[in-house]
From TrEMBL:
CDD domains: ABC_Carb_Solutes_like. It comes from Thalassotalea profundi. Pfam families: ABC_tran (PF00005). SUPFAM superfamilies: P-loop containing nucleoside triphosphate hydrolases. Residues 5-236 form the ABC transporter domain. The gene is fbpC. Coiled coil: none annotated. Keywords: ATP-binding, Cell membrane, Ion transport, Iron, Iron transport, Membrane, Nucleotide-binding, Transport. It comes from the Bacteria. This is ABC transporter.
């Protein structure tokens, strides 16, 4: 399938600071990309640069064969890119119909009418056509913003935290609707989110940014199964971290030891083990862990546990574990690692916040 968007070695500086560096990314027709990363890593700047609200310093952006670079800085209105901001930016003095009609001035009145009616039906907004934005719920306003962006038939839709103002139950429904809509119209989209569940359920592809660079891009499955570094696994909360001691091929942890065949240790590098909750089990015997937090979820009880001996150099904290058994707060239990394909990562000392 041919690419609708190709970004090559893109760099962007704002007020002499490098905000984006060496960004490479591609999107096929109809593909939906979830862009995630810690606050300030450059997600909005990347969307703004694709949309044409920021100038690029070097590299290129190719949108459906239209090449944008330093020598050809195509203005925003000629890029065929739709943008939906977090606050929807609807015109308050225009009705739903007029908001959607806003960008359609080049078309005849009859063409406009047909197009708007089709979008109102697709988005379930027919009864609201003559209402003003302040008369609509958050979800309805978001639909109007979507309809208005789609009216001009964009090649790509950019969405900056599109669901963040909408309550969780409505959000799921809207996400599914929007995904169907984009797929049925074969429109590619990039959406920024801080919500990891959203990105895993809505995106065909995930790109994780850190300090102005994309550090991993792939399908949700690829990224979840094979995070390529500590930052990716930690940001997406793919599992918990267990300190390890590595001696040649032998790896020791508080929850058990194992061997690895192909670990290369660089000087001064520390490793931690990524432990997904399904690879821990409760067993009888001497306790090694204590329950520090309990919540109830659709997957059963969710526990956060710490090592009993916090002075142990391999002591751990906030180990995530699900069980159908009810444990009590401060209960001491024995956990063990279930053998699996162990994933060790060079360790950083601080973690991200989302
Ligand atoms: N117009 C500007 N001039 C100078 N620096 C800017 C400008 N806009 C953004 N920045 C800086 O660029 C960096 C990236 O900002 P950006 O808004 O793209 O991050 P983000 O990943 O979208 O963050 P968040 O998740 O908090 O929305 C930040 O350090 C920000 O301060």
């Amino acid at each position: 399938m041919s690419d609708i968007l190709t970004i090559n070695q893109l760099s962007v500086s704002l007020q002499k600071n490098t905000i984006l560096a060496d960004i490479n990314l591609s999107l096929t027709s109809g593909e939906i990309l979830g862009l995630v990363g810690p606050s300030g890593c450059g997600k909005t700047t990347l969307l703004n640069t694709i949309a044409g609200f920021n100038q690029l310093n070097s590299g290129s952006i190719i949108i459906d064969k239209l090449c944008i670079n330093n020598t050809n800085p195509v203005p925003a209105e000629k890029r065929n890119v739709g943008v939906i901001f977090q606050d929807y930016a609807l015109f308050p003095h225009l009705t739903v119909w007029q908001n959607i009609a806003f960008g359609l001035s080049k078309e005849t009145k009859e063409e406009q009418k047909l197009r708007i009616e089709k979008l109102l039906i697709l988005l379930g907004l027919m009864p609201q056509a003559q209402k003003f934005p302040h008369q609509l719920s958050g979800g309805q306003q978001q639909r109007v913003a979507i309809a208005r962006s789609l009216a001009v038939r964009p090649k790509i839709l950019l969405l900056d935290e599109p669901f963040s103002n909408i309550d969780a139950r409505l959000r799921n429904g809207l996400m599914i609707e929007l995904r169907h809509l984009l797929k049925s119209l074969n429109i590619s989209a990039i959406f920024v989110t801080h919500n990891k569940d959203e990105v895993f359920s809505f995106a065909d592809k995930i790109a994780l940014m850190h300090h102005g660079k994309i550090i991993q891009a792939g399908t949700p499955r690829e990224v979840f199964d094979h995070p390529n570094c500590w930052q990716v696994a930690d940001f997406l909360q793919i599992g918990s971290w267990l300190p390890v001691n590595v001696r040649e091929k032998q790896v020791s942890t508080v929850l058990g030891d194992f061997t690895v065949e192909d670990l290369i240790l660089n000087n001064g590098e520390h490793f931690v083990l990524l432990v997904k909750p399904q690879y821990i089990s409760l067993i009888p015997g001497n306790a090694n862990s204590v329950v520090k937090h309990i919540s109830f979820t659709e997957h059963g009880y969710h526990y956060l546990l710490s090592s009993i001996d916090s002075s142990d150099p391999l002591a751990f904290e906030d180990l995530s574990f699900y069980s159908q058994s009810l444990l009590s707060l401060e209960q001491e239990v024995r956990l063990q690692l279930i053998p699996h394909s162990y994933q060790l990562f060079a360790h950083q000392t601080h973690s991200f916040s989302t």
